[in-house]
Amino acid sequence: MNQVVQEAKRAAQELDPVICSCFKVKASTIRMAINTGGAASCEEVRELTDASSGCGACACRVERLLAGFPAQCGPCALCPACGHISKLCQCQCA
């Protein structure tokens, strides 16, 4: 694969990252569930997209999208769900 194609794929992944690895749910799908489907909680996002219904590791990222933040938190960003530094975040979508 040539370098231009690889860079284009990498850019696309940064703009629309996979949030839920278990079910391959992208950020755009979750945003659509929020904006079009009316999802206002992690449970409602889960019902519409299956995100966070597998291992639960993506719950913090789903909560960030619900709060209007970028999905990917930096190592020093605060989680909007639990308020802990994301590296120490242990919140769960219940």
Summarize the structure.
This protein is 40% helix and 5% strand.
Descriptive tags:
94 residues; 4 helices; globular
Provide a descriptive summary of the structure in words.
- 40% of the residues lie in helices and 5% in strands.
- The mean pLDDT is 81.
- It has 4 helices and 2 strands.
- By secondary structure, it is mainly alpha-helical.
- The termini are far apart.
- The chain is globular and about 40 Å long.
- The protein has one domain: Arc Repressor Mutant, subunit A.
- It has a two-stranded antiparallel ribbon with strand order 1-2.
Q: Report the C-alpha radius of gyration, rounded.
A: 14 Å
Number of helices: 4
What is the percentage of strand-forming residues?
Answer: 5-15%
Strand count, sense and barrel status of the largest sheet are:
2 strands, antiparallel
Order of helices and strands: HEEHHH
Low-confidence stretches: none
* Average residue pLDDT: 81
* CATH fold-type name: Arc Repressor Mutant, subunit A
Got a strand count? 2
CATH class: Mainly Alpha
Question: Which structural class do the helices and strands define?
Answer: mainly alpha
What number of structural domains do the residues give?
1
Write out the CATH superfamily name: BFD-like [2Fe-2S]-binding domain
